[in-house]
Amino acid sequence: MPKESPYQIDLSPEDEPLIFQAASQFETILENVVVSPDTRRPIFTDGSKTENTRCSYPLTHLPNAEPTMTGPHPKNIVFLSADAFGVLPPISRLGREQAMYYFISGYTAKLAGTERGVTEPSATFSPCFGAPFLPLPPSYYANVLAGKIDEHDCQVWMINTGWSGGPHGIGSRIRIPHTRAMLNAALEGALDDIEYQEDPIFGLSAPTSVPGVPPDLLMPRATWADPGAFDEQASKLAAMFVANFAGYAEGVDEAVVKSGPLG
Hints:
- This protein is α+β, with helices and mostly antiparallel strands.
- It has two domains: 17-61, no CATH class; 76-257, Phosphoenolpyruvate Carboxykinase, domain 3, CATH 3.90.228.20.
- It is 29% helix and 17% strand.
- The protein has helices at residues 17-23, 96-105, 138-152, 176-187, 215-218, 220-223, 227-245, 254-257; strands spanning 29-31, 34-35, 42-43, 54-56, 76-81, 91-94, 107-110, 122-125, 155-160, 163-164, 172-173, 196-198, 205-207.
- The strands form six sheets. The chain has a three-stranded mixed beta sheet with strand order 5-9-6. It has a two-stranded antiparallel sheet with strand order 1-4.
- Helix 2 packs antiparallel against helix 3.
- The protein is globular.
């Protein structure tokens, strides 16, 4: 019997229609994916090999791909994070200094199967979301990012694809259709002129409404059965942010340092 995946890694035509269609076609290269011996079709619900699967396919497998593979400067920059603590908003709008702070922090969670020995999510910080590839201090790249934001008048968003309603083991992963709805709304400008609510611990601005997304999901504290447990977990993660950033604060403007969570 296929192993049930607690991290919802299996593709489905409902949640990931384009990737599912592309990954199911000839010429796609699959890694760590079980193939049926009878039909020779991928069994995306089988996680018996690993929780981490990959595929590579030609751009022609996607109906909305840009054949030239080029485009104008972006008007929206998106940071992706998977919060295993279950306390970050699923989407946040970042100011310039906040963008620099969270870029330097590079927070996410290591998920099971991504590295040998990792069996459950754990918090990790990778400066600029790519620590092994930085020959210069993270502050340099944060300043470059800030310059591009200013030059092209970009809006920066942080999308959290992690847990809601509690940490890993208690809550559940944010559903892909909800993440897609939030991202589309941000890119289409639907979140430009709506009401935002500031998180009292992290200082992040989260929209109070997004088309196609339950309002409670946007306010993480409202999804927890025990608000006190949420506050304790949020304070724990905030302290981790502050302790991590202390190692990179040298040469960073004070306004950037102060734009992070309250430790």
